[in-house]
Amino acid sequence: MKRLENKKMAKYAVLLAILVTSGCGKAGAIDADQAANGSQQGNVPSVVDMNTPITLKIYSQALQTTFDLEVTERIKQKFPNVTIELLGDKNGIEKSLTQHIINNNIPDLLWLPKPNDVQIVKDLGLAYDLNGLIGKNKFDLSRFDDAALENARRQGDNGEMYVIPWQVEGFTMFYNLDIFDRFGIEYPKDGMTWPEVLELGKRLTRTDNGVNYRGFDPGYYPIYKQQFGLSVYDWNTGKTTFATDPKWKTILDFLRTAYQVPGNYPADNKVVMNRSAFCYSMTVAMLPWSAYFQPFIDARKTGLNFNVVSLPTWPDAPGRGTAGIGAAWAVSSKSQHKDQAFEIIKFLTSDEVEIANSRIGFAPALKLQTAKDQFGADLPGIEGINVKAVFKLPFTPVPKTVPLLETAAEQFMFTVISEAGSGAKDPNTALREIQELADKELEKQKK
After folding, report:
1. Which residues form the signal peptide (predicted)?
2. For 59, which of 87, 120, 141, 342 could close a Cys bridge (C-beta 3.0–4.6 Å)?
3. Nearest-CA neighbor of 32 among 344, 351, 347?
4. pTM for this predicted structure
């Protein structure tokens, strides 16, 4: 999943603008007491002169308004002599960066939606090993979440560090209080397992006054593989793992069981990756989804009464959350201003900025408890929501992947889930078939 879809970005830009202009703490500013609780990495003395006027080009998929609020305005206050130029993305990372290169618009910095996007950057010759700059700046990597840091480290083949984590994508399980209240069933709790959720969902799946209520929608499918630390393909063999790793059958069996509860298969056949029935028709009782709360807060205005608990876990992978894959920063190998670019990374990953971003709903990639405690504090409409559930589980590192190959292989999974969920095909047959299709597609993509 991209860090933010363009439509989401437009909505969120409006929210951030409101926060900036309405006196809500300057979009997440922190006071002296809060600052004292962090290490303030951004205050480490600079090894480069940032007072000389300079223009830095930054590649990003964000809209200009969102980019200005999260990056440009912050940098302007910290480094008034630095001018930031956004190199936008209209066609995806590979095509957009290729076009920028053709136009001789070489970025100094890259704001990547997730760490493994650096594999695309590497193919374009723009990846740069940051180890030298990390040592030169005495940049403290121990401040970062262990899984986020490991996901970044795994992008290198021989110890290279191509990206610095910035934000993580947390997940929770959303639930509709009104549906639970209607049927007199206790709310879900933090610390549940997926089998427990299935049983609870069965009790809630029923028709009442002509309305079909679904107890549990499996939601965003990748969470299930991430909690297992599962990869779509094996780097050693160059083949996909659908038919060879038994965890895929565990996942597919679970999804099939969930969808085959009588009345729980969606009438529109839209399985996984769909939150509309929860947010808008309000007929789904439980939905695991990204802790990007704004769409759910928007739905509150039209009657959605929701809360969240921590993401349930697999019994044979207890205490393991999702991958926490989120935004990361990279320095371009072609930049003529690598020291200044890294100084910007130091600032944007400082306690100050990470706390400010956390307050407006972007989970920090730091271990810093102060930042986690203030998550969502400046989000209008978040009142009463159990936002601490976002950080209940530690994140789980995932194997290195090439995004283009991963997408090519995984595109068949959604059909398999639909076929298994509807009872059209048994999981073993479905997984064998998907392995054959995906392996052929991988070979095609490699050529």
Report:
1. 1-27
2. 87
3. 351
4. 0.86
pLDDT tens-digit profile of 189-220? 999 999 999 999 999 999 999 999 999 999 88
* Shared domain check, 226 and 123: no
387 within some domain: no
User: With the CA atoms of 15, 20, 24 and 27 taken in that order, what torsion angle do they form, in degrees rounded to the nearest 10?
Assistant: 80
| Full residue range of the structural domain in which residue 186 is found | 171-321+399-446
| Domain match, 408 and 262 both | yes
Asked, for residue 385, whether it belongs to a domain, the answer is: no
Instruction: Answer yes or no: is pLDDT of 317 > 90.
Output: yes
Residue 215 lies in a domain: yes
Measure the CA–CA gap between 287 and 216, rounded to whole angstroms: 6
User: What one-character DSSP code corresponds to residue 265?
Assistant: S
Quote the pLDDT of residue 43.
53
Let me know: does 39 contact 143? Beta carbons within 8 Å.
Answer: yes
pLDDT classification of 26: cutoffs 50, 70, 90: very low
Domain of 248, CATH number, reads: 3.40.190.10
> 23 and 302 in contact (C-beta within 8 Å)?
no
Same domain assignment for residues 90 and 219: no
Q: What is the pLDDT of residues 182-196, one digit of tens each?
A: 999 999 999 999 999
CA–CA–CA angle 314, 320, 324 (5° rounding): 125
Higher pLDDT, 264 or 21: 264
The b-or-e profile of 12-37 (16+ CB within 10 A means b, else e) is bbebbeebbeeebbebbebeeebbee
Distance CA 375, CA 390 (A): 9
109 and 81 share a domain? yes
Mark whether 191 and 156 lie in a shared domain.
Answer: no
CA distances to 276, 284, 298 from 363, rounded to whole Å, are 24, 26, 19
Total length of the chain: 447
Express each pLDDT in 33-66 by its tens digit.
333 333 445 456 678 999 999 999 999 999 898 8
DSSP state of 35: H
Note whether 218 and 125 are same-domain residues.
Answer: no
Q: What confidence tens digit (pLDDT) does each residue in 395-407 have?
A: 999 888 777 788 8
Cβ atoms of 340 and 324 within 8 Å: the answer is no
CB of 400 closer than 8 Å to CB of 155: yes
Q: What is the pLDDT of residue 420?
A: 81
Measured in whole angstroms, the distance separating CA 352 from the mean position of its chain's CA atoms is: 21
| Average per-residue pLDDT for the chain | 87
H or E element in which residue 212 lies: strand 211-216
* Shared domain check, 120 and 148: yes
**29 belongs to a structural domain:** yes
The number of domains in the chain is 2
DSSP state of 233: E
Q: How confident is the model at residue 181 (pLDDT cuts 50, 70, 90)?
A: very high
- 368: helix, strand or coil: coil
